[in-house]
Amino acid sequence: MPDSLKCYVCGKAIQSRKDLVVTNRAFTRFLTFHEDCYKKALKAGTLLGRPANTTVSDIALAIILLTALVFYLFTRKTLLLLVLVASPIYRFIVWWRFERQLKS
Ligand SMILES: [Zn+2]
Fold first, then answer.
1. 103 C-alpha to center of ligand 1: Å?
2. Which pTM value belongs to this model?
3. How far is ligand 1, taken at its centre, from the CA of residue 96, in Å?
4. DSSP one-letter string for 31-84
5. Whole-angstrom distance, CA of residue 10 vs CA of residue 40
6. Contact at 8 Å (CB) between 14 and 20?
7. Rg of the chain in Å (alpha carbons)
8. pLDDT (tens digit, 9 = 90+) per residue, 18-72?
9. H helix or E strand, kind and range, residue 90
């Protein structure tokens, strides 16, 4: 593994997928953390963006997709189609760039 994932808070390598938290700012800059470091930074009030690779965020994504799909079937709004296409791609990028590199 030439390019190991580093924690944004403590700078040490992240070893396991369970310990990894990925967040983003405005869909452009991804940040990686140890789970504990992320929680500490959150408590300290640091604005880090929402985690993109947790069970909660996956459920939220599924709900967003279902809602967008239902509304799209009724309204045929292009914006909803964009949400339907972009959200899974975004989730895939997080997996591809970060989670794929680590053991679960
Ligand atoms: Zn850390």
1. 17
2. 0.79
3. 21
4. EEEEHHHHHHHHHTT-----BSSSHHHHHHHHHHHHHHHHHHHHH--HHHHHHH
5. 11
6. yes
7. 16
8. 999 999 876 678 899 999 999 999 899 887 888 889 888 899 999 999 999 999 9
9. helix 78-97
The predicted-structure confidence for 68-92, as pLDDT tens digits, reads as follows 999 999 999 999 999 999 999 989 9
The alpha carbon of 21 and the centre of ligand 1 are apart by a number of angstroms equal to: 10
Rounded CA gap, 58 and 33, in Å? 18
36 CB neighbour count, 10 Å cutoff: 13
- How many residues are listed for the chain in this entry? 104
Structure tokens at 32: 């990686």
How many CB atoms neighbour CB 51 within 10 A? 19
